[in-house]
């Protein structure tokens, strides 16, 4: 039985975009964090292709010592997993793709965005389409009746595929995942002599979820230089552990904050780094609101990456602290999205949305949204209120 035929395989929302790209490019590259399902997706998209993992020492040695012979064995195409492990291969792959322009012949995967993007830009520009596969979205799990029914459980578990396709303890799996990331992936990306200091740095990042990034403060708390902190943040972002939400700004205003905000790409990982070991601990934890905001931003990002698009997500804040959590500009429409973890809608939830309404309305259509931790949808005069477990209307509006 092939992966595509497995009855318990959870369909991925990105499949449609990936198939379109396979019809239009000689190769596609799928990047994303480890264990997000890249290999499963690739084998589902093209079960007829040979599979080679560059993580395998023998395969990697063959590709390094005889790249022409390695690719000649794969004349009809292949899935090359963790291909960034052998960056020299890209130059030889360029000639293979140019000599035979059949579409969809190769699928490349990699967990290091920086290494993969850099290699493609240098050797395969115009020949390879890039896609990003993140962990499951809530909608993907809801479609197959595997979604957590409680918000706290969802935030605590996170959405990595192995937690939903096998019996496994989430806390144990996530602890192992973090250890593997630190001990293997980081060493592949940069030469860190003091792994304990890097681990502390990552933990300090988890305590700053949803906050403006102050690199000087972060570096001081970790006991490292600002330059080192900037380098390590780049590594975390390139390996899909964190994401930096950029501020929305215009050339007409100097009052807006220019620093990004820090989020993790999975709340389950963040919970483990914060020392949250049970769902009950999460309920009263000081970071619960920030984790919920983090999760909503992840869901919005997946809405775009699953269409093969770069997420056009920003936040808005001025020097007086007046803020909207997410801004999405779609043509002439500004979508302003506020996120509140409370299960009951309170009047002060709308404060930021109303403060910024006059700023946008003269030149743009302004649509205001509130995503909250309750389970009832409300349509108010000027704000659409969406519960955490039904973001479909918001997603549909962002496509319009």
What would your notes on this structure say?
The chain is an alpha/beta fold and 400 residues long. It has 3 domains: 3-132, 3-Layer(aba) Sandwich (Rossmann fold); 139-296, Arc Repressor Mutant, subunit A (Orthogonal Bundle), CATH 1.10.10.10; 314-399, no CATH class. The protein contains 17 helices and 13 strands. The chain has helices at 15-24, 38-45, 57-65, 67-72, 89-99, 113-123, 138-142, 151-157, 170-189, 195-206, 215-222, 226-238, 267-273, 279-283, 288-305, 351-360, 392-399, and strands spanning 27-31, 50-53, 78-81, 106-110, 128-132, 242-247, 261-264, 314-317, 323-330, 333-340, 365-372, 378-379, 383-387. The strands form 2 sheets. Strands 7-6-8-9-10-11-13-12 form an 8-stranded mixed sheet, with helices on both faces. Strands 2-3-4-1-5 form a 5-stranded parallel sheet, sandwiched between helices. A hairpin with a 5-residue loop joins strand 8 (314-317) and strand 9 (323-330). Helix 5 (89-99) packs across helix 6 (113-123), helix 10 packs across helix 11 (215-222) and helix 11 (215-222) crosses helix 12 (226-238). It is globular, with a radius of gyration of 22 Å. The chain starts with 14 loop residues before the first helix and ends with a helix. Mean pLDDT is 91; it is low at 1-5.
């Amino acid at each position: 039985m092939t992966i595509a035929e497995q009855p318990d395989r959870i369909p991925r929302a990105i499949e449609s975009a990936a198939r379109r790209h396979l019809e239009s490019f000689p190769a596609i590259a799928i990047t994303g964090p480890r264990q997000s399902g890249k290999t499963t997706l690739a084998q589902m998209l093209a079960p007829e292709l040979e599979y080679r993992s560059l993580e395998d020492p023998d395969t990697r040695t063959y590709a390094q010592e005889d790249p022409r012979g390695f690719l000649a064995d794969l004349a009809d195409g292949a899935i090359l997993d963790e291909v960034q492990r052998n960056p020299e291969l890209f130059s030889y792959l360029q000639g293979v793709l140019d000599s035979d322009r059949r579409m969809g012949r190769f699928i490349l995967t990699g967990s290091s965005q920086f290494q993969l993007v850099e290699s493609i830009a240098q050797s395969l520009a115009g020949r390879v389409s890039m896609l990003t596969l993140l962990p499951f979205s809530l909608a993907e799990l809801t479609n197959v009746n595997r979604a957590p029914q409680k918000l706290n459980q969802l935030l605590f578990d996170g959405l990595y595929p192995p937690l939903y396709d096998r019996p496994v303890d989430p806390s144990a799996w996530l602890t192992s995942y973090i250890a593997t990331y630190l001990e293997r992936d980081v060493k592949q990306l940069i030469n860190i002599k003091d792994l304990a200091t890097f681990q502390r740095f990552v933990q300090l990042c988890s305590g700053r979820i949803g906050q403006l990034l102050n690199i000087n403060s972060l570096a001081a708390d970790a006991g490292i230089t600002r330059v080192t902190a900037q380098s390590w943040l780049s590594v975390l972002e390139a390996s899909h552990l964190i994401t930096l939400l950029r501020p929305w700004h215009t050339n007409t205003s100097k009052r807006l904050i220019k620093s990004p905000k820090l989020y993790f790409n999975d709340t389950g990982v963040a919970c483990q780094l914060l020392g949250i070991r049970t769902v009950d601990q999460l309920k009263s934890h000081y970071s619960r609101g920030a984790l919920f905001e983090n999760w909503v931003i992840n869901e919005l990002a997946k809405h775009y990456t699953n269409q093969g698009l770069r997420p056009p997500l920003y936040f808005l804040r001025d020097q007086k602290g007046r803020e909207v959590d997410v801004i999405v500009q779609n043509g002439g429409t500004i979508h302003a999205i506020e996120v509140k973890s409370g299960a009951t809608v309170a009047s002060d939830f709308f404060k930021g949305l109303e403060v910024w309404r006059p700023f946008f309305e003269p030149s743009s259509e302004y649509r205001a949204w509130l995503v909250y931790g309750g389970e009832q949808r409300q349509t108010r005069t000027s704000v659409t209120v969406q519960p955490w477990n039904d973001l479909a209307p918001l997603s549909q509006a962002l496509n319009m």
